């Protein structure tokens, strides 16, 4: 059988990398080659593949070094028992592809992951070598994200942070029981320890930079992880609690959620269908509430049903407000910032504008209309100058009035 061409291997390994959601490039330091030293930049525009939280378009060459793997994780399309086309790049081929795509303005950086061949350490060594050659031999100053392997030698994982902007390790599943059942080759404790080790290195590096100006940077964009949603029986409450623990204990930059997707030749222990994508979206919204709106995990869980699941028809913030109606309405001219952040329909920017504006005048509904996109969702939950909801908050049909209209499904959608 003739060897696959570079183009054919690129097609296979780029497609195999699409299941990893944790490839945003926000948070890195700004670097460029305007001083005519080195190549590349972490800024600029190209062909966009993802978006940073600030709305900036990010283009990354997102590939696997190889999709061969000695592990047999049931949910992974690249597991060793899977009947998929296999391919592999050499280290130099990945380096050449990255530089070639960058020079053509196709990408701003590289996201590199891999299946595990020979051993975790052998694979990790090759991935680190890619980043090392780009940085050291070619002066590449674009963004690099390395998906590290927790079973690899800790020194290799640590070296990855010296060359990459961001490093990440997937916790894969919310519970250790689910990981034992669906990924028998992986250990939850080992993954957690490696995440902790990287977190400690990042903290130590930040401290070193305060005291030593030329201290080498270690993963300046931090570390992230990813959880698969719907492959096991974990509830949204379990997922939210797990993510919150990772944020608090290891100071992760992001936890990404990826809805389980059925794969070819799937194992009998996997669900037959994928969870609704809106469930993934609701988990991201709950994540935002905890990270930016001051909600505690227990408060988010208060918006869930008795089975620990977030409602799919309304967002978690509205669900929480409807569950705890006794806290509303709130006076936008007197309420604390924390309470304003809990009002459905008010985002962080709108709350900041309200706090600033009410120092100068008492705000009316028409003033809010200029600060937010819509006040329809706000009316039952707020008191403003000249406006009081007069029992709207107690209406039995309030949920149905505020829920988005049901859309007709497309026959060929």
From TrEMBL:
Needed cofactors: [4Fe-4S] cluster
GO molecular function, one term: catalytic activity
Elp3/MiaA/NifB-like radical SAM core domain residues: 59-286
Residues in coiled coil: none
CDD domains: Radical_SAM
Entry keywords, A to Z: Iron, Iron-sulfur, Metal-binding, S-adenosyl-L-methionine
NCBIfam families, per database record: rSAM_link_UDG
Name listed for the protein in its UniProt record: Putative DNA modification/repair radical SAM protein
Lineage of the organism: Bacteria, Pseudomonadati, Pseudomonadota, Alphaproteobacteria, Sphingomonadales
């Amino acid at each position: 059988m003739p060897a696959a061409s570079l183009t054919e291997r690129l097609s296979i390994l780029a497609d195999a990398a699409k299941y990893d959601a944790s490839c945003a490039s926000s948070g890195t330091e700004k670097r460029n080659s305007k001083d005519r030293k080195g190549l590349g930049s972490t800024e600029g525009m190209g062909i966009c593949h993802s978006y940073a939280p600030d709305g900036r378009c990010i283009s990354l060459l997102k590939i696997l070094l190889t999709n061969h793997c000695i592990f047999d994780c049931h949910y992974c399309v690249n597991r060793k028992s899977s009947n998929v086309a296999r391919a592999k790049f050499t280290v130099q081929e990945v380096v050449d592809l990255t530089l070639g795509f960058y020079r053509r303005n196709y990408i701003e950086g590289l996201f590199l992951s891999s299946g595990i061949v020979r051993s975790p350490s052998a694979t990790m060594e090759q991935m680190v070598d890619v980043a090392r050659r780009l940085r050291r031999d070619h002066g590449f100053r674009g963004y690099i994200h390395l998906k590290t392997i927790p079973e690899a030698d800790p020194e290799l994982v640590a070296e990855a942070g010296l060359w990459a902007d961001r490093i990440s390790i997937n916790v894969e599943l919310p519970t250790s029981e689910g990981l034992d059942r669906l990924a028998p080759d992986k250990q939850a404790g080992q993954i957690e320890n490696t995440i902790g080790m990287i977190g400690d290195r990042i903290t130590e590096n930040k401290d070193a930079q305060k005291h030593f100006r030329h201290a080498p940077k270690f993963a300046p964009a931090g570390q992230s992880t990813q959880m698969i949603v719907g492959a096991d029986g974990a509830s949204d409450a379990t997922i939210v609690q797990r993510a919150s623990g990772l944020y608090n204990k290891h100071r992760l930059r992001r936890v990404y959620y990826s809805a389980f997707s059925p794969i070819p030749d799937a194992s009998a222990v996997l669900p037959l269908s994928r969870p609704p994508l809106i469930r993934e979206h609701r988990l991201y919204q709950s994540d935002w509430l905890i990270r930016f709106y001051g909600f505690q995990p227990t408060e988010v869980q208060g918006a869930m049903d008795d089975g620990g699941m977030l409602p799919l028809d309304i967002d978690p913030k509205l669900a929480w407000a409807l569950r705890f109606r006794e806290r509303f309405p709130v006076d936008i001219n007197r309420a604390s910032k924390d309470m304003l952040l809990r009002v459905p329909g008010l985002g962080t920017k709108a709350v900041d504008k309200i706090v600033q504006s009410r120092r100068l005048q008492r705000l009316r509904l028409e003033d809010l209309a200029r600060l937010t996109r819509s006040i329809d969702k706000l009316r039952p939950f707020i008191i403003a100058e000249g406006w009081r909801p007069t029992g709207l908050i107690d209406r039995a049909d309030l949920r149905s009035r505020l829920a988005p209209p049901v859309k007709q499904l497309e026959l060929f959608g």
